[in-house]
Design goal:
Layout (H helix, E strand, L loop, with lengths): L6 H10 L1 H21 L4 E10 L16 H12 L2 H11 L11 H11 E11 L6 E14 L2 H58 L8 H37 L7 H18 L5 H21 L14 H80 L5 E6 L12 H26 L6 H8 L13 H48 L1
Length: 521
């Protein structure tokens, strides 16, 4: 063939290689046609579910359902796509009945998962909590593909119902679980709080006088005791000076004196003692006894009865008066000493209380800090428990975030697969390309001389004459017979393939699916 081919040369090639061009093109197109007929129609039914926000504002009722809608949707999808849930749906609608004798249960489940599709629908929204714009999932579409339109619609409706029920179940489980957890934690903290209160009560009872709140009182009491001690010491010094003075005066006086003067002095001393002490005081009792004795003696003397007193009994009124004063001073000194001893004992007691107060205060503060922290945690948990209980009621009333079916699954009217026009168009282009390729290949491999110029060029000598191709009537008839036979064979093969597909379409589909799975597994 010449390098610079003309249009006449190309037309000659097409005429010469017409069967190499036509036969592959027809064969490939018939294969595409048979493929379009063989592939069983697949129908799809979809349900659209809207994700609605809770009705009450989150400022009033906080939701205890964690995670965004996309995360919860994926979690629900994983639960529903589990083997147990899918097998329940497969058995209910008797899906993939023809596949079960060829495929295992896992392969059937994989087919179900492949035929079920979940697609989310997003939109730009304004977050009510932060006020920022973001992309959020507002709805999702759930579809199922299958061979039977009615079954496909039923399965799509069942899947939508399962998603709605699972969402309610998941939200109720989360709110119930949150409420139960918070309630248990609050009860534990309540028990801890009671234990801490009991510990504080025992500590208070053991250190009731050294508690921090009594520290100022203990200081005041200690200061008052110190002042009382100083006053008592001063009083005691004054009494001792008075005692020394009376003793010196008493030493200069004789003991003799009249009984009446002494009785008068005793009565005066009794009055003084009764103003300071009670009737049960030893000095009062003693003075009354002496007065009674003296009165009895005076009465006895006045009645003329003889009586004598002890030799050492004083009879001098002045001496008796000084002796009585001295006795009173000594009594006061004894009382002051006893009072001073009692004050010193109290001062030591309160000093010990004040000295132990810092240590008690440290332990007490630790206990109170522990109680305050526990009380704060308990109050916070009780608040959250109340919120969880309200959120639980919100979910039971289906007033929280929920899935709403806005577009139920409908009966599909036409299949989504196969796309017959696309298959035929691809088959047509592939057929034309294969025919052109076959004709070009045969022309390239053919070394025959077809023209006078090719012969002259090949031999290098001039050609004197050329004879045209002589085609007889018998040649034309034979060519037509061959063409008829080829078309009859192609049509027969196509009819046989269609008939086989009519009876074996399900098994062929199953075998083809299994073959592909084995190759790409």
């Amino acid at each position: 063939m010449e390098e610079d081919a003309t249009i006449h040369d190309l037309l000659a090639i097409l005429k010469r290689r017409k069967w190499s061009l036509i036969l592959p093109a027809v064969a490939v197109f018939l294969i595409a046609l048979v493929t379009a007929v063989i592939i069983p129609p697949t129908y799809r039914s979809s349900s659209t579910i809207l994700i609605e926000d809770q009705e009450l504002s989150r400022e009033y009722v906080a939701s205890f359902v964690s995670g965004f809608a996309e995360q919860r949707l994926q979690m629900i999808n994983q639960r529903i796509m589990s083997t147990a849930r899918l097998m329940e749906i497969i058995n209910r609608f008797n899906l993939y009945a023809g596949y079960r004798k060829y495929l295992s249960t896992e392969e059937i489940i994989d087919l179900m998962r492949k035929d079920t599709k979940l697609e989310t629908i997003s939109a730009n929204v304004i977050d009510s909590r932060s006020g920022a714009a973001k992309t959020a999932t507002i709805a999702f579409s759930l579809s199922y593909e299958g061979k039977n339109p009615e079954v496909v619609q039923q399965v799509a409706s069942a899947l939508a119902s399962v998603y709605l029920e699972e969402n309610l179940k998941v939200r109720e489980q989360q709110t119930t679980g949150a409420y139960k957890f918070l309630e248990d934690e609050a009860n534990d903290l309540k028990g801890q709080l009671a234990a801490i209160d009991a510990k504080i009560s025992v500590f208070k009872s053991q250190n009731v006088t050294a508690l921090p709140e009594l520290f100022p009182t203990n200081l005041q009491v200690l200061d008052r005791i110190d002042r009382d001690i100083d006053m008592t010491k001063a009083q005691l010094g004054s009494l001792k000076e008075r005692q020394s003075f009376l003793q010196s005066q008493l030493a200069t006086l004789p003991k003799e004196g009249t009984d009446k003067a002494f009785l008068k002095q005793l009565k005066a001393d009794l009055v003084q003692l009764e103003s300071r002490f009670s009737d049960h005081h030893p000095d009062v009792i003693k003075t009354k006894t002496e007065i009674a004795k003296l009165e009895a003696r005076i009465k006895s003397e006045s009645a003329g009865q003889a009586g004598s007193s002890a030799d050492d009994t004083p009879d001098n009124d002045a001496y008796i008066a000084l002796a009585a004063q001295l006795a009173g001073i000594e009594t006061e000194i004894n009382s002051a000493n006893h009072q001073l001893w009692d004050l010193n004992r109290k001062r030591d007691l309160y000093r010990r209380r004040i000295d132990s107060s810092p240590k008690v205060d440290e332990v007490y503060k630790t206990l109170m800090a522990e109680r305050n922290n526990t009380q704060s945690k308990y109050d916070d948990l009780m608040k959250k428990t109340l919120e969880a209980k309200v959120a639980q009621g919100l979910e039971k009333g289906q007033m929280g975030e929920r899935f709403t079916l806005i577009d139920p699954a409908r009966l599909p009217e036409k299949p989504v697969k196969p796309n017959v026009p696309a298959i035929l168009l691809v088959g047509l282009f592939l057929g034309i390309g294969s025919g052109v390729g076959m004709a070009a290949l045969r022309e390239h491999l053919d070394r025959s001389v077809r023209s006078v110029n090719e012969l002259a060029k090949a031999t290098g000598k001039p050609v004197l004459a050329g004879l045209p191709e002589i085609v007889t009537w018998e040649d034309r008839q034979q060519e037509k017979q061959i063409l008829k036979k080829i078309f009859i064979v192609l049509i027969g093969l196509a009819v046989i393939a269609i008939v086989l597909v009519h009876f074996l379409v399900m098994d062929l589909d199953i075998l083809w699916t299994r073959f592909i799975r084995r190759i790409f597994a």
